């Protein structure tokens, strides 16, 4: 009990010091506050949670601006939930999920399935279905079973400074609680 009181006191003290630091930092003129990063990606989403099935499904529109100095015809994405799709993902093989993967039941696994990806029309691009260009890639270890990174391709490259809009429809299944995700 004495240890719990000490932890609570330490937590309260830490919180009070953090609040004081925030107040002191905000007393100065706005010019001393950190500036916002360059916003190159914006998302609009409509999703539905099904608690019984442990799924989140819906669509998102990604607006992305090319801030590089070269044209881009491939766009790479990270599908984090696929690290928990089975015991063959690089994440599980590397042992980060070792204690759980040995006792996982079928309902414990998670995934992200992309149902469709569309390039939305603007004054540069014509609308196009890019779902057929989706390819899972394994840039780190060549593990063909790993589906945590994928790329799509456009028929014409995106010039520097221009933006592109994608509409992505998906369904994801949440895994049992582990490593920053789950139910």
Low confidence ranges: 1-14, 16-24
- What oligomeric state do the depicted chains represent? single chain
Please give the number of β-strands.
Answer: 8
Secondary-structure class: alpha+beta
Mean pLDDT: 82
Number of helices: 3
Order of helices and strands: HEEEHHEEEEE
Shape: globular
Tell me the radius of gyration. Answer: 22 Å
Q: Helix coverage percent of residues?
A: 10-25%
Proportion of residues in extended strands:
25-35%
Spatial ordering of strands, largest sheet: 1-2-8-4-5
Biggest β-sheet: count, sense, barrel? 5 strands, antiparallel
Q: How far is it from the N-terminal to the C-terminal residue, by CA?
A: 30 Å
Describe what you observe in this structure.
The structure is a single chain. The protein has about 180 residues and is an alpha+beta fold. The chain is about 20% helix and about 35% strand. The chain has 3 helices and 8 strands, in the order H-E-E-E-H-H-E-E-E-E-E. It has a 5-stranded antiparallel sheet with strand order 1-2-8-4-5, with no helix packed on it. Strands 3-7-6 form a 3-stranded antiparallel sheet, with no helix packed on it. A hairpin with a 4-residue loop joins strand 1 (about 40-50) and strand 2. The longest helix is centred in the N-terminal third of the chain and has 26 residues, at about 1-25. It is globular, with a radius of gyration of 22 Å. The model is unreliable at about 1-15 and about 15-25 (pLDDT under 50).
């Amino acid at each position: 009990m004495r240890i719990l009181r000490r932890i609570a006191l330490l937590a309260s003290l830490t919180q009070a010091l953090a609040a004081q630091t925030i107040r002191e930092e905000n007393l100065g003129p706005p010019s001393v506050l950190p500036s916002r990063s360059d916003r190159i990606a914006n998302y609009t989403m409509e999703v539905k949670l099904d608690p019984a099935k442990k799924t989140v499904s819906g669509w998102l529109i990604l607006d992305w601006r090319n801030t590089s100095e070269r044209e881009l015809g491939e766009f790479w994405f990270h599908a984090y939930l696929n690290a928990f799709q089975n015991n063959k993902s690089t994440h599980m093989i590397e042992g980060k999920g070792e204690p759980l993967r040995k006792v996982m039941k079928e309902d414990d696994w998670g995934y992200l399935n992309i149902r469709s990806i569309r390039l939305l029309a603007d004054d540069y691009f014509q609308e196009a279905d890019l779902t057929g260009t989706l390819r899972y890639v394994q840039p780190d270890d060549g593990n063909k079973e790993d589906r945590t990174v994928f790329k799509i391709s456009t028929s014409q490259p995106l010039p520097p400074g221009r933006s592109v809009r994608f509409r992505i429809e998906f369904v994801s299944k949440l895994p049992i609680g582990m490593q920053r995700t789950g139910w």
